[in-house]
């Protein structure tokens, strides 16, 4: 039997495979007490640094469940699960902060003493909770604070000194929220509520065949692939020779999901251009190549064949939806790719600026190929939910961008011979409209015969 001391968390490793747990060589989001989030690729036998919150061994986190909070409790980087600290109910009292002065001498501990406590906490000699208790006991005006002020003070110290982190599984929601708060330019300011409306308006579902023009670092492509779950086909058109869909790797997609995505450069969408031809090398040339050059040779061959496959899928048409987020004019993108859609299929375009969608909306309304073209704006308000203190957050995003949606239809001439008339219903209507006099004249009346001599 293996020694349990080699793995610090007191959790069985033979957990159910269906239960989400941290997997090596995959990306994971780390939520820290300060409220910041860090993206890491968890390689085995490495040290993960969380800045002032400490460093832990990656092997101690592998195969452990997501969502639990872990504490770094010594200088060797061992971790152990802790209870998820939540906010407790705070009772209102008659105390107030009127007589509290924010002076330097309000804290009895000197700067050197506080730094010494922090050093002992980082080395594992002092627990983080004990450090916070030292600060509370040495605060001369702590007892004079209101219960709300005491609670806020403790929470601020926890965010500053607790060496607790929570691993979170990368999902579409967590990844979108991470990039929107950290680097919104990378995803073209696409907020999570706008992304959900985009997927809903485009009717993204399993076994769909979607055409996507994406400049959000692959966020829209990743969202469609996650919703389709490996069933269907996605042709993603990008600018440049190579795609920049970095977000795809952060979601740790399986091969079944990744194989549904086919990328194609904008320069290769002209059907008049011939397919690229690959020239193989002889066996003697392959033997003289180094391992690095041989891998590069095989990679180029695979990329070329993949581009030809994507072109074939594009020119086959019969797509179930067109999703657009492009630096080029939306009108030109719709004009170029709308012919590849089947009839009664949605078109949804996203842009952070409304003006770029207005001309496309006007074009769709004047064309006989589209109906129900509308430009909408999403609105999101976040709330701080605390016991007895629920209110909207003081700062929030002003806009989540705009969506242009419409339906591609097939224009066909009206043929009256194809209209089916229900003759029985017409006869029923005629009988209802008949007058009583007509009904009496048509009724059968008895006749009398006159005898003849």
TrEMBL record:
It comes from the Eukaryota. Keywords: Nucleus, tRNA processing. Residues 435-453 have a biased composition (Polar residues). One of its GO terms (biological process) is tRNA methylation. Its main location: nucleus. It is found in: Nucleus. Residues 421-453 are annotated as: Disordered. GO terms for cellular component: nucleus; tRNA (m1A) methyltransferase complex. Belongs to the TRM6/GCD10 family. This is tRNA (adenine(58)-N(1))-methyltransferase non-catalytic subunit TRM6.
């Amino acid at each position: 039997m293996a020694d349990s001391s080699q793995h610090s968390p007191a959790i069985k490793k033979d957990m159910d495979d269906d239960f989400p747990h941290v997997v090596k060589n995959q990306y994971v989001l780390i939520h820290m007490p300060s409220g910041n989030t860090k993206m890491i690729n968890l390689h085995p036998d490495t040290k993960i640094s969380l800045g002032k919150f400490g460093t832990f061994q990656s092997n101690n986190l592998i195969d452990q469940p997501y969502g639990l909070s872990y504490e770094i409790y010594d200088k060797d980087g061992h971790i152990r699960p802790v209870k998820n600290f939540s906010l407790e109910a705070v009772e209102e009292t008659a105390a107030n902060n009127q007589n509290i002065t924010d002076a330097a001498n309000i804290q009895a501990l000197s700067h050197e003493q506080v730094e010494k406590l922090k050093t002992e906490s980082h080395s594992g000699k002092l627990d983080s909770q004990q450090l916070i208790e030292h600060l509370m006991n040495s605060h001369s005006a702590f007892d004079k604070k209101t219960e709300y002020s005491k609670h806020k003070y403790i929470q601020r110290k926890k965010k500053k000194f607790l060496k607790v982190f929570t691993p979170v599984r990368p999902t579409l929601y967590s990844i979108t929220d991470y990039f929107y708060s950290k680097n919104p330019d990378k995803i073209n300011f696409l907020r999570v509520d706008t992304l959900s409306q985009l997927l809903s308006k485009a009717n993204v579902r399993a076994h769909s065949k979607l055409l996507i023009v994406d400049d959000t670092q692959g966020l829209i492509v990743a969202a469609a692939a996650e919703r389709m779950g490996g069933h269907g086909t996605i042709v993603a058109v990008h600018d440049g020779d190579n795609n920049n869909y970095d977000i795809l790797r952060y979601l740790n997609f399986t091969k079944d999901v990744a194989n549904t995505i086919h990328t194609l450069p904008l320069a290769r969408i002209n059907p008049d251009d011939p397919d690229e031809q690959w020239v193989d090398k002889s066996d003697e040339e392959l033997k003289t190549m180094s391992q690095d050059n041989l891998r590069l040779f095989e990679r180029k061959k695979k990329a070329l064949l993949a581009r030809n496959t994507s072109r074939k899928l594009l020119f086959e048409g019969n797509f179930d939806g067109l999703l657009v987020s492009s630096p080029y004019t939306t009108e030109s993108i719709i004009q170029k790719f709308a012919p590849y859609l089947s009839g009664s299929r949605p078109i949804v375009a996203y842009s952070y600026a409304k003006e770029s969608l207005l001309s496309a909306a006007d074009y769709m309304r004047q064309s006989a190929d589209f109906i129900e073209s509308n430009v909408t704006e999403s609105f999101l308000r976040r709330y701080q939910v605390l016991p007895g203190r629920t209110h909207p957050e003081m700062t929030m995003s002003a806009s989540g961008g705009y969506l242009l949606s419409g339906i591609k239809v097939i224009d066909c001439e009206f043929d009256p011979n194809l209209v089916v008339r229900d003759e029985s219903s017409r006869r029923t209507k005629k009988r209802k409209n008949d007058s009583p006099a007509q009904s009496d004249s048509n009724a059968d009346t008895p006749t009398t015969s006159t005898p003849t001599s």
